[in-house]
Every structure is written in structure tokens, then in C-alpha cells.
């Protein structure tokens, strides 16, 4: 009998319904709604704009997102057992509990709870897609979503230039901000690269990939957004490292692409003398577009409430929010900290940040375990590495760590769920293999001859 461990079946590509669910979720959580419900701002942000922010939120968008998250929760309740929610991981569950508790010390408790509900809905969507779509299915959904977003954004800008382009003339398409459009295009580039590297599909599929790759690259350039470009370097670097690790290369070869990609992103974002050159090439302000002033103010605010934070998601929410004093002081009308790690400290303090770092550490540890096991994970390690590199680098200058209604949060949660599920599959395969080996070994043991009773002799 063969005692070698038999690999469990690889994750399916996904049924048409599952891929369709993924496309709808990616587009809506990726924030194409502003073009449909009139949420695209016109002109440069001003004091009147930030003062008019409604603490109650946008009712139309809330209704759409509530329907989407309700569908995900209904699918979860119908198809899986309650303990499947543990695939999100205890650190993220603890993070959500801590954010919900922050309503007790938040100056705006009702908006805090509303933001917590949005985050819970995003977690549910990530769990649902993680259970229903493997890496190939999710990449297919991303490619379809990219085509829809790209064509829709071009048409929207052609029909409504005042809405399709921001006040500086940069393309934002269906999205509320050019950085969101640029980030969506950059993530789509990663999905196309992953699909092309897998060698999946025939001639027409490869042609479609090349056309989509060129289109997304042009869209990213038209958005004139630097952060997604830097995050793209980090994502590609980690993807190359994951591919080299899967092929059994040495430590130096494996680490080199990740170090180069992530290092380039950090240097281009913060690197002294090189930054003016990059800023000039992109037509940007070499002083981080005024972000240094924001970071200085945020650091002072963090020092006031270092452990608990100000309450999840409300620091910049209107004139009654703690961050409103920054607008009156600087006349610089920002709506987030321009750094995900600082924003997380504002929202959830050191305790919440520690829970996020714990979830990140668990994810990295299990990704390394899958690489070490050399288990056929259907491209999971490469795609999760891409997502993780992009997620961490993007938050160097954007505030998108564990935010509700955010595509990066959705993909981060999907990665955690899928990696946890794959690790469970590997453990089950190992237990089955050891049980078979033990049974075979027991069957080969010599058996004592039977002893005859006196009456039988």
C-alpha cells in the first residue's frame, strides 16, 4: 500500500455564481458607487466641504452596502457551520471587539458603531469569498472587475469630464478619488500578472491579459497617483520571492526580490535626495504633498490617547471630530492621516494596533509554513504575497488598514481565511498520511502462532 501523503484536491476555480459574487463585491467595496449615486466631489476641498460631512453617512450607499453584506451573511449562515467564522483568526476577532468597545470612550459613539458595522460586513465578505473562491477564482473576478472599472471609467470621463476627472485634471473615473482609481488599477495589474504567470488559458485569454495589462497601466498613469505605483513594486517583489521559494532556491535568491521591491517603495516614498527627482517626474510636491504637516499633528494627537485611541473611524468626521482643530489651524483640509499605521493608532490605539500586528504575524508565519511544506496551493502563496506587499506598502501614505468598505481590507481578510483553510488542509493530509503509515506498519508486524488447547492436540 502506498504510504505517501496524498495531496488534497486543489481549490476550485469557482462556479459562475461565486465569480459573479466576487465581481459585485470587488466593485462595490472597491468604491465605484460615487459615480452612480452622485458622491463625486467637484472642485478643491475646502472648509465648507469638511464642515458638511454628515455624521449619519450617505443613506444611499449604506443601503447598497447593507444589502451586499446581508447577502454574504445569509450565504455564510446557509452554507457553513458557525465555527467557520474562526477562520478569520482570533486577532481580528479581538480587533473588532476592541473597536466596538471604543464606542464607550468615543466622542461620537453612534458613528463609531456604524463604522464598526461596516468593518464587520467587510470581514463577512472576506470570509465568504475566502470559503467560496480559491486564488484562481478570485484572480478571475479581479480581472473581470478591472475590465468593467476601466471601460466604465473611460466612458464616464468622456460623458462627464467634470466628474470623471478631479480638480487637477487627473482621471478618477467611477471612483471618488484618483488614488482609489489608481489603487484599483494597480491591484488589477497584480491580478493580470498572477494569471499570466500561471500560464492558464489559451491564445485569446493571453491576448485579453495583455490588453488588460496595458489598459490598467495607462489608467494608473492617467490617475497620476504615486502611492499605488510604489505599492505595485512591493507586491511584485514579494510575488517573485514566493515563486523562488516554491522552486527551492536559496535564502539570498528568495529574499532579493522582496528586499528590492519593498526597499524601492520605501526609498521612493521617504528617501531624502531622490524624492525631489521622483516628485518632479510625477509633477508632485516634494514635501509629500503637505503630508508632513498632517503627520506632525497626528503624532501629537496619538500622544494624548496612546493606548485606546479616539474611537474607531471618527477622528476626521466633521466639525465635532477631534481632528477638526487641524483644519482651522493649518487650512489644510485632510480627511485621514495619510498613513495607515498612524491612522490605526488614532482609531484603536496601541492595543488595537497590537491586535492587527498579531494577525499579520500569524499570516506571515502560516505563509512560511506553506512554503516550507512545498504543498501545491494553487497559486495561493504567490497571490497572498502580492496582496500583502501591496497592502503594507500602500499604507505608507494612505489610511487603509482594516477600514470598512475598503478593497484592501477585503483582500487582506480573504488572504487570512484562505491561508488558514489551506494550513488546515495540510494538517489533515499529514494526519491521514501518518495514520495510513501506522496502519501499514502494524499490518507488517509478525503475529504469534496460535496456541492449541489440550483438547485440540
Automatic annotation (TrEMBL):
Record carries keyword S-adenosyl-L-methionine: no
Lineage: Bacteria, Pseudomonadati, Pseudomonadota, Alphaproteobacteria, Acetobacterales
Residue ranges constituting the O-antigen ligase-related domain according to the UniProt record: 212-357
Subcellular locations according to the entry: Membrane
PANTHER family xref list: LIPOPOLYSACCHARIDE BIOSYNTHESIS PROTEIN PA4999-RELATED, TEICHURONIC ACID BIOSYNTHESIS PROTEIN TUAE
Membrane topology: Multi-pass membrane protein
Coiled coil, from the record: none
Keywords: Ligase, Membrane, Transmembrane, Transmembrane helix
Gene Ontology molecular function, alphabetical: ligase activity
Membrane-crossing segments per the record: 21-39, 59-78, 85-104, 116-134, 179-195, 229-246, 258-282, 307-329, 341-368, 380-397
Record bears the keyword Transmembrane helix: yes
Species of origin: Teichococcus aerophilus
Protein name: O-antigen ligase family protein
Main location group: membrane
InterPro entries: O-antigen_ligase-rel_domated (IPR007016), WaaL-like (IPR051533)
Amino acid at each position: 500500500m502506498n504510504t505517501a501523503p496524498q495531496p488534497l484536491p486543489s481549490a476550485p476555480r469557482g462556479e459562475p455564481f461565486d465569480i459573479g459574487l466576487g465581481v459585485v463585491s470587488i466593485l462595490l467595496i472597491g468604491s465605484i458607487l460615487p459615480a452612480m449615486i452622485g458622491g463625486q466631489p467637484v472642485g478643491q476641498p475646502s472648509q465648507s466641504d469638511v464642515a458638511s460631512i454628515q455624521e449619519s453617512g450617505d443613506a444611499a450607499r449604506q443601503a447598497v452596502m447593507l444589502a451586499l453584506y446581508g447577502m454574504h451573511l445569509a450565504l455564510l449562515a446557509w452554507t457553513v457551520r458557525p465555527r467557520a467564522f474562526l477562520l478569520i483568526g482570533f486577532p481580528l476577532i479581538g480587533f473588532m471587539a476592541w473597536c466596538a468597545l471604543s464606542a464607550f470612550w468615543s466622542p461620537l459613539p453612534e458613528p463609531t458603531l456604524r463604522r464598526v458595522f461596516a468593518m464587520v460586513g467587510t470581514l463577512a465578505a472576506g470570509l465568504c469569498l475566502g470559503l467560496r473562491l480559491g486564488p484562481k477564482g478570485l484572480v478571475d473576478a479581479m480581472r473581470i472587475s478591472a475590465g468593467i472599472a476601466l471601460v466604465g471609467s473611460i466612458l464616464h470621463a468622456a460623458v462627464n469630464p467634470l466628474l470623471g476627472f478631479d480638480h487637477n485634471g487627473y482621471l478618477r473615473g467611477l471612483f471618488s478619488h484618483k488614488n482609489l482609481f489608481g489603487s484599483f488599477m494597480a491591484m488589477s495589474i497584480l491580478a493580470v500578472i498572477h494569471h499570466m504567470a500561471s500560464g492558464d488559458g489559451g491564445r485569446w485569454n493571453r491576448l485579453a491579459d495583455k490588453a488588460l495589462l496595458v489598459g490598467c497601466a495607462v489608467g494608473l498613469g492617467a490617475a497620476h497617483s504615486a502611492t499605488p505605483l510604489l505599492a505595485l513594486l512591493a507586491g511584485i517583489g514579494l510575488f517573485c520571492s514566493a515563486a523562488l521559494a516554491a522552486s527551492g532556491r536559496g535564502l539570498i535568491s528568495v529574499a532579493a526580490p522582496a528586499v528590492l521591491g519593498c526597499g524601492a517603495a520605501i526609498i521612493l516614498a521617504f528617501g531624502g535626495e531622490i524624492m525631489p527627482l521622483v516628485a518632479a517626474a510625477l509633477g508632485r510636491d516634494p514635501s509629500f504633498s503637505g503630508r508632513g504637516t498632517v503627520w506632525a499633528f497626528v503624532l501629537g494627537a496619538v500622544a494624548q490617547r496612546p493606548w485606546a485611541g479616539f474611537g474607531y473611524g471618527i477622528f476626521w468626521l466633521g466639525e465635532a471630530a477631534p481632528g477638526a482643530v487641524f483644519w482651522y489651524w493649518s487650512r489644510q483640509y485632510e480627511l485621514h492621516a495619510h498613513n495607515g499605521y498612524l491612522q490605526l493608532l488614532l482609531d484603536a490605539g496601541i492595543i488595537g494596533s497590537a491586535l492587527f500586528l498579531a494577525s499579520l504575524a500569524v499570516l506571515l508565519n502560516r505563509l512560511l509554513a506553506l512554503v516550507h511544506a512545498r504543498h501545491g496551493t494553487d497559486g495561493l502563496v504567490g497571490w497572498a504575497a502580492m496582496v500583502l506587499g501591496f497592502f503594507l506598502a500602500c499604507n505608507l501614505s494612505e489610511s487603509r488598514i482594516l477600514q470598512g468598505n475598503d478593497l484592501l481590507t477585503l483582500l487582506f481578510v480573504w488572504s487570512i481565511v484562505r491561508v488558514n483553510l489551506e494550513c488546515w488542509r495540510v494538517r489533515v493530509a499529514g494526519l491521514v498520511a501518518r495514520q495510513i503509515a501506522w496502519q501499514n506498519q502494524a499490518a507488517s508486524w509478525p503475529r504469534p502462532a496460535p496456541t492449541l488447547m489440550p483438547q485440540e492436540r
